[in-house]
Amino acid sequence: MQEIMQQVGALLLGAVPTALLFIVLVLAYQFLVQAPLTAALKERRARTEGAVQEAHQAIARAEARAEEYAARLRQARSEVYKAREERIRQWMAERDAALESARKAASAKVSEAKALIESETDSARKGMQAAVAELASQIVRVVMPAATGGSR
Hints:
The protein has one helix and no strands. It is mainly alpha-helical.
């Protein structure tokens, strides 16, 4: 057993430089490779997450602007429709006024024409009555001498 312990002790003594070299190698790897690699990965993750968050914020801003533009467009359309309706109302009022004016003018012309026709009818009646009286007297003159036996 003594011999085994000596062999184990010799192996351990021979392994000490290898273990020290391994520990130095692990520490060197930790400081030279692992730490910068971890820092680079953290920075990359932070940048990526920052870029994703920035992209989400940009999308939100774009959606807000699109909504604002849509609201402005709806408002502009509403104003255009209101102006159009006002113009149509104004045109209808002008048309109604023109129609009323034309109706009044036509009514005045009809009244004048009726008055003229009535005056012409009255004068024609008077003329006819005068002509009837004249004709009657002429007929009486022509018929009476013939009725009394006279010659013509």
